[in-house]
Specification:
The complex is a heterodimer of chains A (about 300) and B (about 600). Chain A is mainly alpha-helical. Chain A is built from twelve helices and no strands. Classes of the chains: A mainly alpha (about 300), B alpha+beta (about 600).
């Protein structure tokens, strides 16, 4: 305060301005990224619609009525109906809950685990070889037999504990997440190796910062950009993988709609009822592309070298 | 899967959206004109010369993996091997045997079948040659029996040698088959694709334990119209004319290619829309899609009635996971499916007519029998039975009577325990839609239904270690298609005997997946087995069928037409039979 008094030219408003923080800077930078803001709006809309939608739009997503099959979009059925005469809008809203949740949770699992392994491997030379060979091993594992094995081992237990839908949800997101962390681990390790000997890390070390502090406060923020891009990409991959799992009978029951499942079911109806593929495809597209722009904006906003630019 | 896991999902979603948008703009607006089913005229191909046609392109959505049919793993292998190997006779569309390597069909009248039904004597065609130029003789037939009968060979068609005491070569062209007991079905061996004759010279070092890894399994020498050119297991088989084939005017097509493709719809589109293939096998596709694919006019649908019935199996044992090793063992009792009223209610609640017309239409009819072909064993009694009528009100009353009443939340419960049905089938779009319809029917009654599907390779696997196979029956109900594989019903109906129950002690090898056991049924079957008179046999088969239906051991849904195939409209000479491969008379096909 003493110094402030010594500078009488500053106005009062300038004096009480809050100190700039990393997150504050990031937010102001993110806000200037138009596509990122558009992505945030679209993604939030999708999230709100899938969470609250089924309470407002109350048509039953499961009722079969062959007389109402193959209807084009109308006021009664905003997305039209499928071959069984089920309302596609109701199915899309309900299906979005699972798809969005699977996409996001699986992404969080793969990012967390991948970052953990990658940063440890990149920082500690002693365990680098071990961790990276483990990563190679996971990359070379054939995913389908592994999925079969995991599902057979844990399905009944989870089913008994959490019921058919929640049990399968836990299984699906952990399986997808845990089979998807390897690229992230490699990216993070590469970043860590390239910044480990940089001056700011040496400086932190020389003033006695602990390993954990160096990793979390100094290196991770500088290594986050590729991780965020990988994260946004993996949301879409998870949504599609979930549909493949469901089709093989390893995922959700066949009567539980998800976007991927709806898209998969539509593949033979492109000519008869294009709305069956169009809407779920569009929703997956919107979810994935908005997530990508959010990732893009976050990368720019969080990159310390771009701050203030 | 690999691609999906590695992050291609973003573009796939976009691409499909764009593709569908494009298709909206360019979709052909011609309405489906309702394809006319033809069974293919059995026109004589005498006007066409041997080898006059080019290559015949056939698509299967399961690719052949082995060509020795005695080691076959499925229909695809029997069908692909059947172009090379032949049996003595095959069953034609009228369920009567047609001679192939035999010069005539042995009967009681011509003395070929002994009066005591304990032996059958086959006369073989003279001067038949293997495709390597050597003579086909009775020794090859005897060898085939030895090969299949050797337990170490582990032949997949070993049921054909059950009860056969001896096969001997009377002379170069005569074979006598003796049975341990009088056999009302003397055509059980060397007839149909299960009875293909293999060459002694080629396979004599492959008998027994050596059969499994024998290289000859993938390049059999045969007497059939075609011989092998190239075989890539799991992908494609190429054949060319067997120059030694006995009929100088046949076959018409010079080369044949059988190729495996991804799924039934892909095969149908290739035949009916692109027109670059001639024949697509087993079109198990929803009727709405199939009729639209076929409507283009480039192809016709080949269908005829079959013994195959899509059915729901009702578990009598308790499949609760909490039972551990005792799960679905015949010693346990199902908590509610052991009650006849509950089973009746489940049967009556299903709208099988809607299911059949909407999903199968010309490829299947609603039925309440599990024995449907030949016509003389198709029971006339069940159609009027009350359990075969769709009546949700009555079904609800039956459940009330059984003590399963609706609680405040609309769910059926008894003694505080809710009625929950776990319902398993194989992965197939059509089956998942059937499940959805049945679920809706049952949930309307207040029953909670959990659907589950597993890949066909798992569901129909004989792996004792796999809990999701049909035989393990770790579910309350299961659904699939089955039927007698020959016009005689004995083998098929034996699948509901007490001693056929699939369980842990027999590694789930029995055919009785329902864990159904009734002394009444066993006694009636014993009577059927002894009965030698054809008419009385048919009557008994009908009684056995009625017993299974009335006791709701199974819930029959749809009598499927078979094979449902798509064929180029120029292709002539097809004459499908339910008892044989689609390609059983390929030497008669022409364009």
């Amino acid at each position: 305060m003493a110094r402030a008094e010594a500078l009488p030219t500053l106005t009062r408003a300038e004096l009480v301005r809050k100190p700039r923080s990393l997150w504050g800077d990031a937010w102001s930078s993110f806000r200037r990224h138009r596509l990122a803001m558009a992505g945030t709006v679209v993604f939030s809309l999708l999230a709100v619609a899938t969470v609250l939608g089924p309470f407002i739009y109350t048509a039953d997503p499961a009722t079969i009525d062959f007389a109402a099959g193959y209807q084009a979009p109308s006021l009664v059925h905003p997305f039209g109906t499928n071959d069984l005469g089920q309302d596609l809008f109701a199915r899309a809203l309900l299906g979005g809950r699972i798809s969005m949740a699977v996409g996001i949770v699986a992404m969080l699992i793969s990012i967390t685990f991948g970052t953990l392994v990658g940063s440890l491997a990149g920082f500690f030379n002693r365990i680098d070889g071990l961790l990276m060979r483990m990563t190679d091993m996971f990359i070379s594992l054939p995913s389908l037999p592994l999925l079969l094995l995991i599902v057979y081992l844990f399905r009944d237990a989870l089913h008994a504990l959490f019921g058919p839908v929640v049990g399968i949800f836990i299984l699906v997101v952990s399986v997808i997440g845990l089979l998807n962390w390897m690229p992230v681990a490699r990216l993070v390790r590469a970043q860590f190796l390239s910044i480990k000997r940089r001056e700011f890390v040496e400086a932190a070390r020389s003033i006695g910062a602990s390993d954990v502090r160096i990793i979390t406060r100094h290196m991770l923020p500088n290594a986050m950009s590729p991780v965020l891009v990988a994260a946004s990409l993996s949301v879409g991959a998870a949504i599609i993988t979930e549909s493949a799992l469901s089709f093989l009978g390893l995922g959700f029951p066949s009567d539980r709609p998800t976007w991927g499942r709806m898209l998969f079911d539509a593949r033979n109806f492109l000519e008869l009822a294009p709305q069956m593929a169009l809407f779920p495809g569009l929703l997956i597209f919107l979810a994935v592309i908005s997530m990508n722009y959010i990732g893009d904006g976050l990368r720019d906003a969080l990159d310390p070298r771009r701050l203030g630019a | 899967m690999g691609a999906a896991l590695s992050g291609g999902g973003r573009w796939r979603g976009l691409l499909v959206a764009l593709a569908s948008a494009l298709l909206v703009a360019t979709a052909c607006t011609t309405p489906p004109s309702g394809a006319s089913p033809t069974t293919g005229a059995s026109a004589s191909a005498s006007a066409v010369a041997r080898g006059g046609g080019g290559t015949l392109h056939i698509l299967y959505w399961q690719a052949p993996t082995i060509l020795n049919t005695h080691k076959a793993q499925g229909t695809k292998d029997y069908d692909a091997g059947g172009l090379i190997l032949e049996p003595l006779a095959k069953f034609g569309p009228d369920a009567k045997p047609v001679p192939f390597l035999a010069s005539e069909i042995p009967t009681l009248q011509n003395g070929g079948i002994a009066a005591d039904l304990k032996s059958i004597t086959w006369k073989l065609k003279q001067n038949v040659k293997w495709s390597d130029g050597t003579d086909f003789t009775a020794d090859d037939v005897v060898f085939t029996w030895q090969y299949v009968a050797d337990e170490k060979t582990a032949a997949s068609d070993s049921e054909t040698v059950l009860g056969v005491s001896k096969v001997e070569a009377v002379d170069k062209n005569t074979v006598k088959v003796s049975f341990t007991d009088p056999n009302p079905n003397p055509y059980q061996i060397f007839v149909t694709g299960l009875g293909n004759i293999i060459q002694k010279k080629q396979f004599q070092s492959c008998i027994g334990a050596a059969a499994e890894t024998c290289a000859e399994n993938n390049k059999p020498v045969g007497t059939g119209p075609y011989k092998l050119v190239d075989f890539k297991p799991g992908d494609v088989v190429t054949y060319t004319i067997n120059d030694s084939y006995r009929d100088p005017g046949k076959p018409f097509f010079k080369d044949v290619q059988i190729k495996g493709v991804a799924d039934a719809a892909t095969a149908a589109r290739s035949v009916c829309q692109a027109g670059d293939s001639d024949y697509g096998w087993n079109m198990q596709i929803e009727w709405s899609i199939l009729s639209q694919i076929v409507s283009g006019g480039k192809c016709v649908m080949v269908t005829h009635d079959s013994p195959n019935v899509e059915r729901i199996l009702v578990n009598r044992a308790d499949p609760s996971a909490s039972l551990g090793d005792k799960r679905s063992e015949p010693t346990t009792q199902h908590p509610f499916l052991s009650d006849l009223n509950v089973r009746k209610a489940l049967a009556m609640a299903i709208d099988r007519k809607t299911l059949a017309t909407q999903l199968y239409n010309e490829t299947g009819k609603a039925t309440c029998n599990i024995v449907t072909a030949p016509a003389e064993v198709n029971s006339p009694n069940t159609a009027s039975a009350d359990i075969c009528q769709f009546d949700a009100t009555k079904a609800g009353q039956l459940l009330d009577q059984a003590g399963w009443t609706k609680a405040a939340d609309g769910k059926r419960a008894k003694g505080g325990k809710q009625m929950v049905i776990n319902y398993l089938t194989s992965t197939n779009d059509l089956r998942q839609k059937e499940q959805a319809i049945v679920k809706q029917n049952w949930e309307a009654l207040g029953i909670t239904v959990n659907l589950k599907n597993v890949p066909a390779s798992v569901f129909f696997s004989s792996d004792a270690g796999n809990p999701d196979t049909a035989a393990h029956m770790y579910y309350d109900v299961e659904m699939y298609t089955n039927g007698s594989s020959d016009p005689d019903q004995q083998n098929y109906l034996s699948g509901w005997l007490c001693n056929q129950i699939a369980q842990k002690s027999n590694q789930w090898k029995g055919n009785n997946y329902e864990r159904y056991c009734s002394t009444q049924y066993d006694n009636l079957f014993a009577q059927y087995k002894k009965e030698l008179d054809k008419t009385k046999r048919s009557q008994l088969a009908i009684q056995l069928n009625d017993m299974l239906v009335n006791d709701v051991v199974i819930i029959p849904l749809v009598a499927r037409a078979f094979p449902v195939a798509s064929a180029s409209k120029d292709l002539k000479g097809l004459n499908g039979t339910p008892w044989e491969s689609d390609l059983w008379n390929i030497q008669e096909w022409y364009k």
